[in-house]
Amino acid sequence: MSKTSPVVPVILSGGTGTRLWPVSRESFPKQFWPLISDRSMIQETAGRALGDGFAAPVVVCNQEHRFLAAEQMRLAGIEGARVVLEPVGRNSAPAILAAALLVAETAPDAVLWMMAADAAIQDVPALHAALDVAVAAARTGRVVMFGMRPTAPETGYGYIEVGSALPGLPGAHDLTRFVEKPDPETAARLVASGRHLWNSGMFVFTVATLIAEMERHAPEVLEAVRAAVARRAQDLDFIRLDPAAFAACPNISLDYALAERTAQAAVVPADIGWSDVGSWGALWELGGKDPAGNVAMGDVLLEGAERCYVRSDGIVTAVVGLSDAVVVVTEDAVLAMHRDRAQDVKKVVDRLKAARRHEAVAHNRVYRPWGFYESLIQGDRFQVKRIVVPPGQKLSLQKHFHRAEHWVVVNGSALVTRDGETLLVRENESIYLPLGCVHRLENPGRIPLTLIEVQSGSYLGEDDIVRLEDTYGRS
């Protein structure tokens, strides 16, 4: 990257990754999981835009994931990241425009690099070489896309037809047209033509170009987002867009709002080992394989299996004599299917949602800004949970109308507020919190606090929490 005028990475983290259920769910989607390495997808993405030539990233996510996104940046050692919160999902055009308007306040000539939080790229040096080409084209007023050289007639991606080379910009081309996700026959014809590339969804443009082109082609989007940014609120380290203004914005992708309408569209062909990691089949293709073509992750035993993807995040999982299968095991769900049916996982999730099953949207382990909890046992009028609180963190000051709680500390120490008194509860000690009492839990120590919570009462739902005070600004 050039060391002049740093590029601002904008990471869009609004997806839920339905086709990677049961690992990816709405409460903890695929971008926050380590799926292709020991780092999460969003950490991998942010890591591609570090060092000379790059400014701190802007991350756009929904408000439910704000602490996850911030913690992921912290764990990756990324300082100065701005986390912008969407009150409702409105697709990629409003999201990138909100980031652009914020950047414009201090750097109106900045170059933005828009990318999804959940894509895999195997050749980062080749990516940076393509980015140099894209940045040069963007500085001439172009709206630049990255076109990925297809390796197969993929029907899950849109395609871009490449036009003539741009004078004075080696490696950049006019973008002739977009092709929607094709049927198999059309996909084969597009790949054979040699003129069509996969649409990666990555863009590069200057702030000024994006705003001017949106004013020309989607003024209603610009008007709504401009109002949402103007009336934003600062919440801890987060930037909250105005809910009413943002909700009034059309739900539209940047492809439809701008790329397919602008006369400034350009494309940089690239061969960088890109995948949108949109299915378990894609993860099989990306994974390191044994001599039989299997990809295995976790506590897995394979016997006579061929070309399978097997992942266990919990119990030992044995697969015997299967070919071309996907088996994914979590603490509360199992998925088993043929690899060719990878796109049909969404149908399973839709059925679970229709049945109002919590497995469709949430894991047994639920993350909160102060740590996490997981349900161990649930019965008639009682529930047992494990709660883990990192050092220095504390829960809200709260009370319940329908349940009492008993806390048993099994590791670390707990500072407990109970109706005005403060008590230190150590390992192997317990405390009782009667129904209706005002209470708070805090970890004052240097190691994680782990306790077992036994709830009893007529209603044990998470919505029976009245927060009186909260460090994290939750109501």
UniProtKB/TrEMBL annotation:
Catalytic activity from the UniProt record: alpha-D-mannose 1-phosphate + GTP + H(+) = GDP-alpha-D-mannose + diphosphate
MannoseP isomerase/GMP-like beta-helix domain ranges (all copies): 305-352
UniProt EC number: 2.7.7.13
UniProtKB keywords: GTP-binding, Isomerase, Nucleotide-binding, Nucleotidyltransferase, Transferase
Key word Transferase present: yes
Occurrences of domain Nucleotidyl transferase (ranges): 9-286
Signal sequence, start to end: none
NCBIfam families xrefs: GMP_PMI
Name recorded for this polypeptide: mannose-1-phosphate guanylyltransferase
Organism: Limobrevibacterium gyesilva
